[in-house]
C-alpha cells in the first residue's frame, strides 16, 4: 500500500476532522501518519477472504426502555457549562 | 491502628466494627495527600472539604445501620473521565478544563450507594490516549516507587494514588490496557472486566467498542468487592450485557487444582524483558505447585492485535470526539465569533493536545472514502480472526498467563518523542479489548532497579470469577 502521505491528504483529513494545523504541525502529522500507516499495513499480510468484519464481540442488543422522564429540570446546570449563553439558550457564531 | 496499611475491605470492616470511622479514614488519606501529592500529582481535582463532609455523612449512615457493605466509609478516587455530578471532570484535557457534569457515571453511583467516599479525580492521559500519563494538560503523574519514572497510563493517576495510599482504591478505564498497565507499573491490582460487565454510562467515550471501566486496588479481595459494586445492568446503558447475580467476592478462594493455565509462546518471545519473563515463569511455577496444569501453547495472530487495535481505536475516537465543538460545553477559542466553522477548527486545535490530534487524524483517515475498506474494514476482519484465536485457546485453557508490559515503568520523557514505540508497549494488553475478554494485572515481583513487575491473567468472556480465583490463589501462595 502507498504510504507517502501528500500535502493534499493532510489538508483533507484536517477538513474531515475539523482541525487547523500550523505548517510545522502538518509536517509532523505527515511523518507520524506515514509511519503509523506503514505499521498498520501489516494487517495486509492476513488472509481475510470470506471473513465478516466484527463490530461487536458479544451479541449485544440495545436495551430498550419506556421514554419516561426521570430527571429533574437540569437546564441551569447544563447551560452552566456552555462557553457562551444568553437567556436560556446556547450562543453559536454565525452559521451563514 | 495504622489505617493506611489496611486494605479497602479491612478498612471497611474496621469501620463497621467501630474500631475506626469513615472520618478518621478520610483524614488519614488527606494527610497522605498533603505529604505526597506535591511530588506525585495523582489528582487533577481534589475537594478536601467536600470529602470531609461526605465522610461525616457516610459515618452517620453507617452508625444508623443504613450502610453495611464492605466498602462503606472507604475513601476512593475516580479517574477524571468518569462523570461526577458537581465535581469538575476534565479528561486530562484543556478542552474540559471547566466542565462540571450534571450527572454521575453509573459506576460512580454504584460505589456511592455502597458507601465509598469520593476523595477526588485522578490524572490521566488526555482522553485516555497514552500509556504514561504524560499526555495530560495538568502535568505528568510520577511513579510512587521511583519519581523519575512514569506510573504508566492512561489511568496513571489512579494507579499511583492507590500505590501511594492517597486513596484505598480507585476506578480507571481500560480501552487498550489503561487499567492493567499502570497497575503493573505501580505494583497494584487492576482489572478490566468483560466488555459490558460495567455500564459505560457517564464514561467519556474514547473507543466505545472497547472502553470498559475497571477497579485499581491494593489486592485481589478489594478488586472483587469493587467489581461487585460496579457490575450490573442499568437502563441508561446501551451495552451492559447481562446482569448475573454472581458474587465476585465468593470467588475468592485458594484453589486452582485442575485448572488449565496456558502460556502463549508468542508472548514470551523477542521484546520481553528478561527480568519480566523470569518473574512470570516463577509465578507460573507457583500456580503449578498449587495444582494448576500449566503449559505453553501457540495463541497465534499476536502480531496483528496492535495494528488492528490502533486502527479501530483511532476510528472510533475521531467519531466520538466530534462532539467537542465549543458550543454546549468545554473550551471555546476566541477571535472566531464571526464564523462557525472557523470557531470549530480553532477550538479543537487549541483545546486538544498533540496525541489526541494525532489519533483523531489517523481515525479520520482510516474512515475516509477510498481508505475505509483497506484500513478500517480490514481491522474489523482481523479482529474477528483474533477473537477466533482466543475462542480456540479457551477451548483448551481456563486462563492465559502472560506479561502486562514488555518492561517495567519507563523514565519520564523517554516515551514521548516516538509515538509508535509507545504504542508497541501495549502489545500484550490490547487483544483483551479487541476480543472483549476479562483480564487482571497483578504484581509478581520487583526488578533489580526496584520497580514493580506485573503479570496478566486473561479468561474467556464472563469468567471474572475464575480469574479472581486464580489471581487470589496466586496472591495467597506468593505470600
Topology:
The complex is a heterodimer of chains A (96) and B (479).
Chain A (H helix, E strand, L loop, with lengths): L6 H10 L6 H18 L34 H6 L4 E2 L2 E2 L6
Antiparallel strand pairs in A: 1-2
Chain B lengths: L7 H9 L5 H19 L2 E4 L1 H16 L11 E5 L26 H8 L3 E6 L33 H8 L5 E6 L5 H7 L2 E4 L19 E6 L2 H11 L29 E5 L9 H16 L3 E5 L4 H19 L19 H12 L2 H14 L4 H25 L2 E5 L15 H6 L5 H5 L4 E8 L5 E7 L5 H15 L1
Parallel strand pairs in B: 2-3, 2-4, 7-8, 7-9
Antiparallel strand pairs in B: 1-3, 4-6, 5-6, 5-10, 9-11, 10-11
Helix pairs in contact in B: 2-3, 5-6, 7-15, 9-11, 9-12
**Average predicted local confidence, pLDDT of chain B:** 95
Assembly annotation:
heterodimer
Give the strand content of chain A: under 5%
Q: Residue ranges of chain B: pLDDT <50 for 5 or more in a row?
A: none
- Uncertain segments of chain A are none
Overall strand count of chain A: 2
Alpha carbon gyration radius of chain A: 23 Å
Total helical elements of chain B: 15
From N to C, what is the helix and strand string of chain A?
HHHEE
Query: What's the CATH architecture name of the domain at 3-251 in chain B?
Result: Alpha-Beta Complex
Order of helices and strands of chain B: HHEHEHEHEHEEHEHEHHHHEHHEEH
Please tell me how large the radius of gyration of chain B is.
21 Å
Description:
The complex is a heterodimer of chains A (96) and B (479). Chain A is 35% helix and 4% strand. Chain A starts with 6 loop residues before the first helix and ends in a 6-residue tail after the last strand. Chain A contains three helices and two strands. Chain A is mainly α and 96 residues long. Chain A has a domain at 7-45. Chain A has a two-stranded antiparallel ribbon with strand order 1-2. Chain B has 479 residues and is α/β, with parallel strands linked by helices. Chain B has a domain at 3-251: Amidase signature (AS) enzymes (Alpha-Beta Complex). Helix content of chain B is 40%, strand content 13%. Chain B has helices spanning 8-16, 22-40, 48-63, 106-113, 156-163, 180-186, 220-230, 274-289, 302-320, 340-351, 354-367, 372-396, 419-424, 430-434, 464-478, and strands at residues 43-46, 75-79, 117-122, 169-174, 189-192, 212-217, 260-264, 293-297, 399-403, 439-446, 452-458. Chain B has an eleven-stranded mixed β-sheet with strand order 1-3-2-4-6-5-10-11-9-7-8, sandwiched between helices. In chain B, helix 5 (156-163) packs parallel to helix 6 and helix 7 packs antiparallel against helix 15. Chain B starts with 7 loop residues before the first helix and ends with a helix. The chains are: A mainly alpha (96), B alpha/beta (479). The interface between A and B is large, with 53 and 76 residues.
Amino acid at each position: 500500500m502507498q504510504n507517502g502521505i501528500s500535502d493534499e491528504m493532510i489538508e483533507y483529513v484536517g477538513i474531515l476532522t475539523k482541525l487547523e494545523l500550523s505548517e510545522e504541525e502538518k509536517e509532523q502529522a505527515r511523518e507520524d501518519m506515514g509511519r503509523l500507516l506503514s505499521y498498520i499495513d501489516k494487517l495486509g499480510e492476513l488472509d481475510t477472504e470470506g471473513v465478516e468484519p466484527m463490530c461487536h464481540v458479544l451479541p449485544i442488543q440495545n436495551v430498550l426502555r419506556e421514554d419516561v422522564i426521570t430527571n429533574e429540570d437540569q437546564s441551569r446546570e447544563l447551560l452552566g457549562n456552555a462557553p457562551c449563553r444568553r437567556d436560556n439558550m446556547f450562543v453559536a457564531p454565525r452559521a451563514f | 491502628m495504622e489505617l493506611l496499611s489496611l486494605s479497602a475491605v479491612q478498612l471497611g470492616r474496621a469501620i463497621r466494627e467501630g474500631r475506626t470511622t469513615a472520618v478518621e479514614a478520610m483524614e488519614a488519606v488527606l494527610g497522605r495527600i498533603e505529604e505526597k501529592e506535591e511530588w506525585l500529582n495523582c489528582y487533577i481535582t481534589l475537594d478536601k472539604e467536600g470529602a470531609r463532609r461526605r465522610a461525616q455523612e457516610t459515618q452517620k449512615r453507617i452508625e444508623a445501620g443504613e450502610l453495611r457493605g464492605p466498602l462503606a466509609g472507604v475513601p476512593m478516587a475516580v479517574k477524571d473521565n468518569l462523570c461526577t455530578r458537581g465535581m469538575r471532570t476534565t479528561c486530562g484535557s484543556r478542552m474540559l478544563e471547566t466542565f462540571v457534569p450534571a450527572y454521575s457515571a453509573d459506576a460512580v453511583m454504584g460505589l456511592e450507594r455502597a458507601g465509598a467516599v469520593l476523595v477526588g479525580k485522578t490524572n490521566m492521559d488526555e482522553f485516555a490516549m497514552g500509556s504514561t500519563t504524560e499526555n495530560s494538560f495538568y502535568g505528568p503523574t510520577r511513579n510512587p516507587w521511583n519519581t523519575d519514572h512514569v506510573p504508566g497510563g492512561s489511568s496513571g493517576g489512579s494507579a499511583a494514588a492507590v500505590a501511594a495510599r492517597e486513596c484505598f482504591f480507585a476506578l480507571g478505564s481500560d480501552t487498550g490496557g489503561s487499567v492493567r498497565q499502570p497497575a503493573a507499573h505501580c505494583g497494584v491490582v487492576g482489572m478490566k472486566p468483560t466488555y459490558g460487565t460495567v455500564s459505560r454510562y457517564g464514561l467519556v467515550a474514547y473507543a466505545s467498542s472497547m472502553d470498559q471501566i475497571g477497579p485499581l486496588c491494593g489486592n485481589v479481595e478489594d478488586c472483587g468487592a469493587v467489581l461487585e459494586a460496579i457490575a450490573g445492568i442499568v437502563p441508561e446503558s446501551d451495552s451492559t450485557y447481562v446482569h448475573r447475580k454472581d458474587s465476585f467476592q465468593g470467588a475468592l478462594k485458594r484453589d486452582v487444582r485442575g485448572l488449565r493455565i496456558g502460556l502463549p509462546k508468542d508472548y514470551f518471545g523477542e521484546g520481553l524483558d528478561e527480568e519480566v519473563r523470569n518473574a512470570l515463569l516463577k509465578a507460573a511455577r507457583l500456580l503449578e505447585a498449587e495444582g494448576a496444569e500449566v503449559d505453553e501453547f501457540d495463541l497465534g495472530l499476536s502480531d496483528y492485535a496492535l495494528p488492528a487495535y490502533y486502527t479501530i481505536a483511532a476510528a472510533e475516537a475521531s467519531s466520538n470526539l466530534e462532539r467537542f465543538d465549543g458550543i454546549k460545553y468545554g473550551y471555546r477559542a476566541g477571535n472566531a465569533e464571526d464564523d462557525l466553522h472557523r470557531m470549530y477548527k480553532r477550538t479543537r486545535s487549541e483545546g486538544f493536545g498533540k496525541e489526541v490530534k494525532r489519533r483523531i487524524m489517523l481515525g479520520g483517515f482510516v474512515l475516509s472514502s477510498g481508505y475505509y475498506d483497506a484500513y478500517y474494514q480490514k481491522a474489523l476482519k482481523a479482529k474477528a480472526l483474533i477473537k477466533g484465536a482466543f475462542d480456540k485457546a479457551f477451548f483448551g485453557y481456563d486462563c492465559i498467563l502472560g506479561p502486562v508490559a514488555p518492561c517495567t515503568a519507563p523514565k519520564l520523557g523517554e516515551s514521548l518523542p516516538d509515538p509508535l514505540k509507545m504504542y508497541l508497549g501495549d502489545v500484550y494488553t490490547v487483544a483483551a479489548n479487541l476480543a472483549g475478554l476479562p483480564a487482571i494485572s497483578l504484581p509478581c515481583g520487583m526488578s533489580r532497579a526496584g520497580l514493580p513487575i506485573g503479570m496478566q491473567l486473561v479468561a474467556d468472556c464472563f469468567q471474572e470469577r475464575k480469574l479472581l480465583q486464580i489471581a487470589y490463589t496466586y496472591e495467597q501462595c506468593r505470600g
